[in-house]
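This part of the workshop introduces the protein records we will be handling. A record pairs a protein's sequence with a compact description of its fold. Comparing a sequence with its tokens is the quickest way to learn the format. To make this concrete, we reproduce a full record directly below:
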Amino acid sequence: MQQKADILFPRTPLLAAGLLIVATLTSVALARMSPAPALTDLVKTAVAESRSLRFEDASDGSVHVYDSETEETVAIAAPGTNGFLRGMMRGMMRTRKQNEASLKAPMLLERLANGMVLLIDDETKVTLDLDAYGHTNADVFKAFLKSQSHLANQGGQG
């Protein structure tokens, strides 16, 4: 013969958990239905400076950065240096390969009026806020802007 055990669970924590779930679902639903501006609308700031750049891996392991309009060499990252630039370009090129986009197409580097630096790949529709990776890493790309290029030529990034 089996005995039936009465297990009593306190109702207060159960009701509190239920109310928390309902409140969470309600707040998520309201947030999705609200006419909040998209992130891209929030970032619409005047462009202070821009440069179209092309990145190429050389056979010696260096990375060459060219101004895509003038074909001028902007910088050369020697083999084994500038890990952030190399990692960023590897990721961008991997995304281009996945999307079957041109690997030789230029990317747009923009400095906005508010100081934000963006790397824009029109081939894949990817826009990266470079400051999100830290100011030191963003400075690597800022050196490629014409207003900063004299600093790069005096021993800056490259």
User: Anything to note?
Assistant: The first strand starts at residue 47 and ends at 57. DSSP finds five helices and six strands in the chain.
